[in-house]
Amino acid sequence: MSELAWKTDVQLACSGDREAFSRLVRQMQNELYGMARTLLHRDEDCADAIQEAILQAYRSVRKLREPAYFRTWMFRILIHECRRIYRKQKRVSPTDAIPDRAAPDRESDLDLKDAVNRLDEPLRTLVKLHYFADLPLAQIADIMNVSEGTLKSRLHRARRQLVKWLNVSERGEIGYEC
Amino acid sequence: MNAEQLETRLQNIGKREGTSVPAAVAERIELTLAALPDRSAQRRTARRRRAWAALIASAAIVGGSIAGYSAYNQEGALESPVEQAGPSSGIPIDVHSEYERLRSQLSVYELRDSIRRMSLKENSVSGAGVSDQGIHVRLGYIVNDGYALAIRYSITSDQPIKDFNLKGAVRVDGQTVGYVGQAGEDEGEYAVFRNEYTIVSSTQYEGVLSTTYYPFEGVRMQHTDFELAVSRIGTVDGEWEFDVDVRRQDPSLVIVTPQNSFDVSYGLNVSKVSMSKVSTRIDYTFKPSASRINRVFGIELEDDTGYRYGAVALRESGNGEISHASFPALNPEANSLLIRPVYWDWKINDGKGRADVKSVPAPNDPLVVPIGEDKELIVTAIERRSDRTVVRTLFPPGEAVGFSLYDVENGKVPVIDTLYGKESGMVFGPVASDAKLQIVAESFGKSTYLPELEVRVNLL
Which of A29, A59, A92 sits opposite B26 (nearest CB)? Predict the structure, then answer.
């Protein structure tokens, strides 16, 4: 989709055009899934989050004050939903959190992912978006509505925490929570 | 490990993460997009959905049953359970194993059995409840398939309940998805929940609240926070509130039609029929004919026992997107379903008539409401109940007829529901036992069935 077509569709969607809104979502579906997959374990959860993000976005798209930020705004809604489901999943039985697909990860990746999952918010989401979803800091800054400087500072904190945990873990001094 | 090594490992994980969208997720995105309401029609939809069934007249069943097998989550069948009329000359059909055939039959039996067990006669409520004002409310099963909901309840009271009915709101994940009781349509409160109940005694009531489709406002997660807030029972105001975690139950029987090369400028293509314990959902694409000024297309659903599931207006498909029509749960006695496309040519003032209700009509002594010169509406019963007024009717075949109920002194009586199953008619709000009633019937033109587009779905 050309930039002009994208902008036109955003304008139409903001004025309530269902078809234009659908075209935008289809255009973004790879990115939406990619982002959801970095924040959630299972495809079913990703589908739930994306579905709810679509519904919420459609419901309030006409209130979007700056159409140029449609993409960022969608991501923001999706991240919010992913966090909500993530919190909910933690209340559900552990067997529900088994990934859909056979994990191709190496053991060390699993350790690292587990450690990332133990980070507090907003560090956890930041690390996942930056490293796992490969989003540049400038875009994450838009999505999370904070400055790049703040993000860099948070990343530094997150990395320091991860290094500490992983070094301790590699020495076998602590176990992981179930 | 130092920070540099960590950076490398984190980046490597990112590179290994694939982002191609799995088919199941892509399908859900498409389903979500297809279910988005057209804003211009959004407010009209609830009224139209209710009125539609009453406006379309009944007509003879066309076509014979076709033997076949039902498929369970399969992309085809040896002999397709679905026969779709239309211009396509050859439909390629995959071979379906005996194992799958038996399994699908088992699924039909299990689904029928589950639905039977949900009936008021078969099902009792036990467990904790909420009490207020001397009235005790307990909830039984809550079944949510993501689009439809059914809630079993039981109410007992210390004193007889006068004018039994319920008023309340149903919320899913914090959003109100519908109301129970009389609709306050002016405030945007649509009573999308049907309330079927039996009066065991003056102090005991058993019932089911249900809806075949809760619209866009609802969310469809695997787990939902379900809330029922009842604010009035009979004439008693109070607070009976429930907050329960409900797991979604997906349709247990899905019949997928064979893939075909259906590519016409006009037609209905049913791609899937999904049956859960609380709804029957039809996925379709639809392209209306070129001449469609003032024409509304819809589908009616009925089964081989004559049970009618109602009618739903069709949505035109853009870019091949799939739309959905939601109907009540399968009648457990059904062996096949018939999807009947129909269109209705809207004509304002095609004929109007009124008749005062001077005596209680009966099938052998009906009230005849003349509509114009050559049409009439036959009213076979009017039941005045404490919470509703039920008007049973016969419609002139091939005519689109709507009717309203008036309390002569107090004005138009609000519509609550339409009858379905083996009955035809409308449900209105309650009226006083001595209220003078009048029925105003109006013809909106012809309704025309499209037998060439009919789809029969065999379940066994």
Answer: A29
Asked if A25's CB is within 8 angstroms of B9's CB, the reply is: no
- Domains contained in chain A, number: 2
pLDDT (0 to 100) of residue B296: 76
Q: Catalogue all structural domains in chain B, each as residue range(s) with its CATH number.
A: 61-113+251-347+449-458 (2.60.40), 117-247 (2.60.40.1630)
The pLDDT assigned to B420 comes to: 67
In chain B, the N- to C-terminal Cα span, in Å, equals 63
User: Which structural domain, as residue segments, surrounds residue A69?
Assistant: 1-101
CB pair distance less than 8 Å for B21 and A33: yes
| Residue B186 burial class via C-beta count within 10 angstroms: exposed 0-12, middle 13-18, buried 19 and up | exposed
Nearest Cα to Cα of residue B30 among A97, A135, A26? A26
Instruction: Looking at the structure, tell me whether residues A11 and A68 fall in a common domain.
Output: yes
Which pLDDT score, from 0 to 100, does residue B414 have?
78
| Residue B24, both tokens | 């199941």
- Residue A166, chain B, CB below 8 Å: the answer is yes
Where does a domain end: A52, A75, A101? Answer: A101
User: What is the value of ipTM here, to two decimals?
Assistant: 0.73
Chosen from B2, B4, B6, B31 to mutate, greatest number of chain A CBs within 10 A? B6
Helices B3-16 and A107-118 sit at what angle, rounded to 10 degrees? 100
Burial class (CB in 10 A: 0-12, 13-18, 19+), A47: buried
Of A70, A101, A132, the position where a domain reaches its end is A101
Is A51 within 8 Å of B220 when comparing Cβ atoms? yes
**A142: CATH:** 1.10.10.10
The pLDDT of B219-224, averaged and rounded, is: 65
Distance (Å) from the alpha carbon of B147 to chain A's nearest alpha carbon: 13
Cβ-Cβ contacts under 8 Å, A159 against chain B: 3, 6-7
**Whether A35 and A94 share a structural domain:** yes
Bond before A122 cis per omega within 30 degrees: yes
- Residue A3 belongs to domain with CATH number: 1.10.1740.10
Determine contact: B162 vs chain A, CB below 8 A.
no
Closest CA to B454 of B58, B59, B61: B61
Domain check: are A151 and A82 in the same one?
A: no
